[in-house]
Specification:
Length: 219
C-alpha cells in the first residue's frame, strides 16, 4: 500500500475563514443586543446551516424579521474585509510545496461554493498547487456525507485507502471516516473543543506534518 494523494479541506484548514465568518456574525448579533457563542456557531462549521440556523435563531431572540438578502451581502463584505489581511495557516505552504516537489497530487474538498474556494486560493497564490477542486457545486451531498472526498479521490485516480485527508472540523472528520479515508485533523479556534478522537492523527497545525513520515506510515 502506498500514499497516492492528499486531500485538503479549505475553510479553517488552509486559511482561517471560519474565524472571520464567526466574527462577522458575532458582530451582527451584538449590533442587535444578542450574544453568539463560539460553541453554538461551531455546529455549522464544515457544513451548511442544516443543524443550526443563526438567522432563525436571531429572529426568535429579537422577535424581528430581517432582509436576509441584504444582510447576507453585508456579512460577506465584512468577511472579505477581515480575510484580506489573513495568510495561509501555518505549515500549509510548506506541505503543499513538498507534495509538489515529490509529485504527490493534491486536491481541495470543501462544502463551500467553488467561486469562494478558488477566489481565496488565487488570493493566496496557492491554486497552482492543486490538481483539482471539489466543492458543493460538484456533489449532491456535502459534509458530513462522504461525497466530496470520494469525488476528489476519483479525480485524483486514488482509492480510499491511498489518500490522506486534512481537516479541521468534526463534520469533515465524519465525512472522511464515512469515505473510509485516513484523516489528520488540525483543529482551529472554533473546533478545538470538539471530539476529534476518531482522527487517524491530530496535530496542532499542518506545520507538524512531515510528508516523509506519511509515506513511511503507508509503507
Amino acid at each position: 500500500m502506498a500514499l497516492r494523494a492528499l486531500i485538503f479541506d479549505f475553510d479553517g484548514l488552509i486559511i482561517d475563514t471560519e474565524s472571520a465568518i464567526y466574527d462577522a456574525w458575532r458582530e451582527f448579533y451584538e449590533s442587535h443586543g444578542q450574544q453568539l457563542e463560539m460553541a453554538t456557531w461551531a455546529q455549522c462549521v464544515g457544513t451548511d446551516f442544516g443543524a443550526y440556523d443563526p438567522k432563525a435563531e436571531l429572529e426568535s431572540f429579537t422577535g424581528k424579521s430581517f432582509d436576509w438578502k441584504k444582510i447576507d451581502r453585508e456579512l460577506e463584505a465584512r468577511v472579505r474585509e477581515l480575510l484580506t489581511g489573513y495568510e495561509a495557516l501555518p505549515g500549509v505552504r510548506e506541505l503543499l510545496s513538498d507534495a509538489l516537489q515529490s509529485g504527490l497530487p493534491c486536491s481541495v474538498a470543501s462544502s463551500s461554493p467553488l467561486s469562494w474556494v478558488e477566489g481565496w486560493l488565487n488570493h493566496l497564490d496557492l491554486k497552482g498547487h492543486f490538481a483539482n477542486v471539489s466543492c458543493r457545486d460538484h456533489v449532491q451531498r456535502i459534509k458530513p456525507a462522504p461525497d466530496l472526498f470520494l469525488d476528489a479521490a476519483k479525480k485524483l485516480g486514488a482509492a480510499s485507502d491511498e489518500v490522506v485527508i486534512f481537516e479541521d472540523s468534526l463534520n469533515g472528520l465524519r465525512a472522511a471516516n464515512a469515505a473510509g479515508m485516513r484523516c489528520i485533523t488540525a483543529p482551529g479556534p472554533l473546533t478545538r473543543h470538539l471530539d476529534l478522537s476518531s482522527s487517524w492523527r491530530r496535530v496542532n497545525s499542518l506545520a507538524d506534518v512531515a510528508l516523509i513520515e506519511l509515506h513511511e506510515s503507508f509503507a
